[in-house]
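Sequence, please.
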């Protein structure tokens, strides 16, 4: 059996790492990896391939730095060429980026079976490019691998049971990765404060709206008086912060370049809490038994909110400060098996073989 895997962005490298490892350990499956080039530099791409031992991509399409239309269009064209020459049995796409949608469209139009990992998630915010990518990819897939019961429920409510699509609750591949690589966690090269909040910001809804970003920075400066903050900056956020001269309390907020996965695991293990607009980091906070404040107005990972492990604070600085006070008082159950048992990759590969 031949599988073509389409990946291009940081979260997809992490998600694909464990599935790719299981594929390599399984007889009679060949995986062809296509890197679209959406994330391309050392900190956002190479480090994941090297550390997590993801095989070097068979194709690097090198498509980046473009608007949504040009990026998705160019990817679609190039992926189609790859699929023509590889003629795989399956195309495997991950998550919700433009690479996901381009891979899904290319496969479906060529009548190649399509599998979507991390299917069924919804923010119900159609302004998010990710929401558009995931809804469209789900609808044209042949197999949907859902990370949670909530994802299955979302699909059921959208009528997916009426379509000829196999829907499987495989558990979350991010949990597989966290469990598998946990013991490889390594301290970053910079000196860490003894207690710190781990923060990341990169969602377009925060970075493309300077008022929202200023409000988050204001809240962080305020919070930093109470607890140090470590903030590995996504290149997009770094650029906007420099262009707008946003200033941080440098004595208490440690701004760094993006770190590798093994370092982020170390930071997750050792932080006091996580404050983020990342999808992956909300779950990782839970895996590492840390409360999380989400810097968005909604989340796809609602089970964390229901458990009291995550508070949706948005970008309003007062909400962020209040959420901080509230979450430290919560008594959180970190034992709920809401993301499966850490064997999502095995379940995915088994289902593809069948
Ligand atoms: N991550 C990392 N280094 C960083 C920040 C994040 O390795 O400096 C990892 C972290 O494990 C996170 C994952 O990258 O879950 C996903 O990335 P991101 O937050 O960019 O995307 P999202 O999960 O929001 O799609």
């Amino acid at each position: 059996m031949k599988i073509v895997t389409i990946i291009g962005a940081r979260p997809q490298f992490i998600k694909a790492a464990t599935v790719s490892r299981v594929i390599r350990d399984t007889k009679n499956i060949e995986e062809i990896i296509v890197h679209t080039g959406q994330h391309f530099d050392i900190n956002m791409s190479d480090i994941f391939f090297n550390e997590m031992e993801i095989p070097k991509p068979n194709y690097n399409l090198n498509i980046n730095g473009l608007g949504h239309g040009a990026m998705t269009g160019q990817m679609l064209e190039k992926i189609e060429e790859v699929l023509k020459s590889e003629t795989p049995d399956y195309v495997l796409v991950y998550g919700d980026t433009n690479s996901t949608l381009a891979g899904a469209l290319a496969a479906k139009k060529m009548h190649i079976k399509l599998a979507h990992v991390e299917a069924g998630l919804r923010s119900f915010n159609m302004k998010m490019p990710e929401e558009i990518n995931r809804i469209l990819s789900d609808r044209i897939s042949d197999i949907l691998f859902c990370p949670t019961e909530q994802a299955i429920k979302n699909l059921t409510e959208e009528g997916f049971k009426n379509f000829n699509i196999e829907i499987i609750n495989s558990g979350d591949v991010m949990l597989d990765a966290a469990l598998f690589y946990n013991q490889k966690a390594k301290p970053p090269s910079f000196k860490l404060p003894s207690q710190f909040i781990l923060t990341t910001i990169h969602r377009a809804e925060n970075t493309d709206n300077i008022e929202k970003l200023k409000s988050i920075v204001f809240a962080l400066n305020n919070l930093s008086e109470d607890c140090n903050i470590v903030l590995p900056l996504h290149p997009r956020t770094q650029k906007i912060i420099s262009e707008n001269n946003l200033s941080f309390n440098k004595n208490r907020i440690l701004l760094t370049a993006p770190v590798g996965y093994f370092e982020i695991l170390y930071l997750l293990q050792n932080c006091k809490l996580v404050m983020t607009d990342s999808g992956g980091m909300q779950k990782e906070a839970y895996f590492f038994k840390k409360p999380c404040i989400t810097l968005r107005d909604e989340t796809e990972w609602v089970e964390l909110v229901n458990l009291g492990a995550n508070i949706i604070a948005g970008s309003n600085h007062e909400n962020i400060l209040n959420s901080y006070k509230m979450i430290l008082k919560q008594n959180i159950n970190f034992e709920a098996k809401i993301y499966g048992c850490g064997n999502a990759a095995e379940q995915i590969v088994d289902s593809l073989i069948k």
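DSSP finds 15 helices and 13 strands in the chain.
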